[in-house]
Specification:
554 residues; alpha/beta; 18% helix; 26 strands; seven-stranded parallel sheet
């Protein structure tokens, strides 16, 4: 970085200290990545040096293992899947209880039978009032090995082949975040080296952007969908790579629109004046979030551009810098008061050794060895690992996109407060100069502006196998995911006892001041207890079911 602080000569480094590790190309028509071996990974480069890709070589495939002998079930014994479960012999009311407790008007009863040596699934949809009878009839079906009530499910993990390598997405609860909020109406401007518009994992993600470069660096025309460096493409993928498409990775906020603003050249460098123009352009074109994974010294033009973007309703997020070992300078634009400055953490929830520290650090996010998209013209597979606060900033930008989707009127100061209040404290207790408020928690932050399912926990249970004739007890406590108790909230408790075949007993109550609902009953037979939080403005409905299996007195 030039020593001069004169804005007319100051250039901005996009990625000093970034480490890049290329991933081996994915085998075509195969739904999983080939094994790779990274060799010669370069250490973080010093400020002012360039970062070079280190290629990974796939392991040579070994010979296929010889097939072993077929395993047959023990003579005279049904295979495990063909054995009857207790759902066939339990009280019909106990089987139907979880679905009835939801308050649904119609229930789907599922019967699994063994036909010609294989399981056959059939369903019957009946009014809730007829559910117990439908379960009773299903249990009498010849060959029935299981009878249940149907439930809605969703994917718990994306099928993108490189998803298992995205430790950062797991740490941030990516699938949960995506399931709770749609960011399709939010545009994030990536003011960077451009974004490769031809990358298949970014198909349909980009909206028209712009290019602001000196003629000698590529001219001033273009829509930003060209990236001769790779940095901007990597940033864009962290935010919005298409999820669940059996390709590459998934972004933290898939569905978000990316506006590529190319202000840095093929060396990852550019003029602060071009960055200011890019910020203004993004704000004028409706970007709700502006990601600046770049840094330099203080500059009045960039400062004014950021203020303008704030006034237009955009939240600006910037990398804190990667020069801790080179003097730990204050990095702008992250250091501006109206910008969210982001530090980087490792998979061990520790500060990355290169991540700058200072009073301007607002929050930390995963930034070390992050897998994301990369121009295929530069790396055949189209994916590399990179490290730096440049990789942490887009994680925060994705979280902010979710907050803005849930509540579009949020201002920068309000977003900063929400992120700080819900961050996981790391390092020195309370705010510090290394982690800011702590590690980003997108789901907790989202649940402060959008009702999320209540968290229900049991306590005070002496035994799940009480003695027949004794009193069984248990207390359910309802809280928000942020830990706030849900006091005086409506709850329905239902008991299904096997000795009262076909009968379901329910009671509507409210939680006490501590969010608790005590339950108790005299044990006569196997009993399923379902407690359903019916929902309030603070949390949506949620339920929990436990089963007491009594034992005879000795």
């Amino acid at each position: 970085m030039p020593s001069s602080k004169d804005p007319s000569t100051m250039q901005t480094r996009a990625r000093a200290g970034v480490v890049i590790v290329a991933l081996a190309a994915l085998a075509p028509a195969v739904g999983s990545p080939v094994a790779v071996h990274a060799s010669g990974v370069a250490p973080a480069v010093a400020a002012g040096a360039s970062a070079h890709a280190t290629w990974a070589r796939p392991f040579a495939p070994g010979p296929a293992p010889a097939p072993g002998p077929a395993l047959a079930p023990a003579e005279g014994r049904p295979q495990g899947w063909a054995a009857r479960t207790t759902s066939v012999t339990s009280a019909p009311g106990a089987v139907a209880a979880p679905a009835l407790a939801t308050g649904a008007s119609r229930i789907r009863v599922v019967t699994t039978r063994v036909v010609s040596g294989q399981p056959v699934i059939s369903t019957a949809t009946v009014p809730a009032a007829q559910a117990v009878g439908a379960v009773d009839r299903a249990q009498d079906t010849p060959g029935a090995v299981a009878v249940t009530v149907d439930t809605r499910v969703r994917a718990t993990a994306y099928n993108d082949p490189l998803r298992p390598q995205q430790w950062s997405l797991s740490a941030l609860g990516g699938e949960t975040f995506h399931a709770r909020v749609s960011t399709t109406g939010v545009t994030v401007a990536v003011v960077d080296t451009g974004v490769d518009g031809s990358h298949p994992d970014l198909r349909g993600v980009l909206v028209p952007g712009a290019q602001f470069l000196e003629p000698s660096a590529g001219g001033t025309r273009g829509a930003g969908a060209v990236d001769l460096d790779g940095h901007g493409t990597h940033v864009a993928g962290i935010i919005a790579a298409v999820a669940h498409n059996r390709l590459g990775i998934a972004g933290l906020a898939p569905g978000t629109r990316i506006m590529p603003i190319r202000v840095l050249d093929a060396n990852g460098e550019g003029w602060s004046s071009d960055i200011a123009r890019g910020i203004i352009h993004a704000a004028n074109r409706g970007a709700k979030v502006i990601n600046l994974s770049l840094g330099g010294t203080r500059d009045a033009a960039v400062d004014k551009a950021v203020q303008y973007a704030n006034a237009k309703g955009a939240v600006v997020v910037a990398a804190a810098g990667n020069e801790r070992a080179q003097g730990n300078p204050v990095t702008y634009p992250a250091a501006y008061a109206n910008v969210i400055g982001v530090a980087a953490t490792t998979s061990a929830r520790r500060a990355a050794p290169y991540s700058n520290t200072g009073s301007y650090v607002d929050i930390a996010a995963p930034g070390d060895r992050i897998v994301s998209t990369y121009p295929r013209a530069m790396v055949r597979s189209g994916y590399v690992r990179m490290s730096g606060t440049s990789m942490a900033a887009p994680a925060v930008s994705a979280a902010v996109a979710g907050l803005k989707a849930a509540r579009p009127t949020l201002t920068t100061s309000q977003v900063q407060a929400l992120l700080s209040r819900t961050a996981a404290d790391l390092g020195t207790r309370g705010r510090d100069n290394t982690y800011g408020a702590g590690l980003l928690d997108p789901n907790k932050a989202l649940c402060t502006v959008k009702a999320c399912p209540a968290a229900l926990t049991w306590s005070g249970v002496r035994s799940w196998a009480p003695v027949v004739g004794t009193m069984a007890t248990g207390t359910v406590t309802a809280r928000t995911v942020n830990g706030s108790v849900l006091a005086n909230a409506p709850v329905r408790t239902c008991w299904a006892m096997s000795h009262l075949r076909g009968r379901l007993q329910c009671s509507d109550r409210r939680t006490d001041a501590a969010g608790r609902v005590p339950t108790s009953f005299t044990v006569r037979s196997t009993t399923s207890v379902t407690v359903r939080f019916l929902g309030t403005s603070a949390a949506t409905s949620s339920s929990t079911t436990v089963t007491y299996r009594p034992r005879a007195a000795r």
